[in-house]
Fold each of these.
Amino acid sequence: MSSQASPRTPLAARLRAPEVAEVPGPHHGLTWRTLGAEDADAVLDLVARCAVVDRPVSAPSPVQVADAFDPAHTMVRDSLGGFSADGALQAMAVVYLPPGDTDILRAFLTATIDPAWRGRGHRSRAAGLAGRACPAAPGRRRT
């Protein structure tokens, strides 16, 4: 018998997501809040700073970012941005739930951390966001 959870086991259980996803403490040096449409420029700036190091295959366009955070759309289910004292977005995690899923709920988590701010323990919050966004849904975990 396999020790792995069944694909029908709720994603929150398989991620071991807490009931409440705690915001990282102030010892990380960032102030945390939910991201919104007004943060689109800051999101694009963070993505551009990370692209220099991460060299992604593609990057979101300004229109894609604006659409993702538009309250009229339901794609972004949860988000969190970490802002430094100078107001710059240094870290973010976003959970996307594609509209139209009925039989199997898919949740996509993206986490982006400025290269200068990596290695400070921000990654655990990302798993909490995913579990809270769709706590009872079966799903696959890919990292």
Note: The two ends are 24 Å apart (CA to CA).
Amino acid sequence: MSSELSEALAATLAEMRETVDALVATLGEEHQALEHADTPALDRAGATKLIQMRKLDRLDAERVQLSNAAPQAADRLKPAWTQVLQSLEKCRLHNQRNGGLVNQRLAQVRRALSALTGERDEPVYDPAGLLHSPQRSQPLAQA
């Protein structure tokens, strides 16, 4: 029974590693889509990323269960788990990079809207200390 659990844990870790590697590739595709403003590619990458994250959640629950059932096997397979964690850190860094690119594009759009409307983009405080965000309900043009 213990060898079966050990084999199952090794297989789960291998599948996690494959899924994390695929996630790294998907994050790279997402980055390219963001750089090229390719909305269909961005949608595909987002959908793929969601599937991969759900799979990783399922596999991690399986890993925890198997590790608790076979702690000696978990100790032996610690290097494989460390590799998965290192790859997950790579994913986190790629995701942060992509998030930074999204924030940069959002700031550009806000600046463009501010230039078109003539309004400041930043919220301001009134004399009573209440925060007010600029309203963009004015028409940009008339026919």
Note: The beta strands are 124-125, 131-132.
Amino acid sequence: MPKITKKQKYWLDHYQAAKSSGKSLAAYAREHQLDAKRFHNWVYLLRKRGLIPGSESTKSSGRFVPVKPIGAAVTPAPSPAEIVLPNGICLRVPTLSKALLSDLLALEVAS
């Protein structure tokens, strides 16, 4: 085991006592008047320094995990668009493509 400081030993002792008690870290902290957030932070630091073994669920390989989608991808239905011109004319189109928007903006500028 690497050399540890007095603070690390203090929190490591509390961690080991909490684990042997079978209680959650939060319950143990409450019972022993410890600041739960500080206790969790120390457990994180001790785990990071290799003083506490990490659980498989908290270890990260830093790699992406392959995901297989279930079923077909859903394409959202196009939503209608409404454009109100400064002169009060309202244009409603069922779908608005980039090309149509460019054409409409060109008309507005030309007017």
Note: The two ends are 80 Å apart (CA to CA).
